[in-house]
């Protein structure tokens, strides 16, 4: 059987077009994909308040970390700790916790730390609390938990 040159050319072009379509729809291999930038790690509660304390709230401190507010139902105490996103060189840090409406001074821990400030504790039964923290030049405050 004799094929015309035109038929052979048309078949070859069809095969090339099909191959190009398959190549265009095949996912790129891992070696040719660009890596994505990993998001900065977010601060997580480090357990510094001790056993029996459960995180009930947190407040971001700029982009540097968080202040965590915890509660221990068996003792009736609140605890707060300011935690950095990542351990680093010493930096000014602070955590405050205040039982609103009582005559006691707020519980405060401040200094130059590498990972966290605190923990600080206040009696939390029958009161509302306010908490705050500072990491370097960033600071934040929050309030509202009442028991």
Description:
By secondary structure, the protein is mainly beta. The chain has a domain of 93 residues: Immunoglobulin-like, CATH 2.60.40. 14% of the residues lie in helices and 45% in strands. The protein is built from one helix and eight strands; from the N terminus they run H-E-E-E-E-E-E-E-E. The strands form two sheets. It has a four-stranded antiparallel β-sheet with strand order 1-2-3-6, with no helix packed on it. It has a four-stranded antiparallel β-sheet with strand order 5-4-7-8, with no helix packed on it. The relative contact order is 0.18.
Topology, please?
Layout (H helix, E strand, L loop, with lengths): L4 H21 L28 E8 L3 E8 L4 E8 L6 E10 L6 E7 L2 E8 L4 E8 L2 E9 L1
Antiparallel strand pairs: 1-2, 2-3, 3-6, 4-5, 4-7, 7-8
């Amino acid at each position: 059987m004799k094929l015309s040159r035109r038929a052979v050319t048309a078949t070859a072009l069809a095969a090339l077009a099909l191959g190009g379509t398959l190549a265009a729809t095949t996912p790129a291999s891992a070696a040719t994909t660009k890596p994505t930038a990993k998001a900065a790690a977010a601060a997580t509660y480090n357990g510094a308040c001790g056993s029996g304390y459960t995180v009930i709230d947190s407040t971001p401190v700029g982009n540097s970390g968080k202040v965590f507010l915890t509660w221990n139902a068996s003792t009736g105490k609140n605890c707060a700790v300011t935690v950095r996103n990542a351990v680093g060189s010493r930096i000014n840090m602070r955590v405050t916790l205040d039982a609103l409406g009582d005559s006691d001074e707020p519980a405060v821990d401040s200094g130059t730390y590498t990972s966290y400030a605190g923990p600080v504790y206040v009696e939390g039964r029958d009161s509302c609390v306010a908490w705050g923290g500072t990491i370097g030049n960033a600071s934040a405050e929050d309030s509202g938990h009442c028991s």
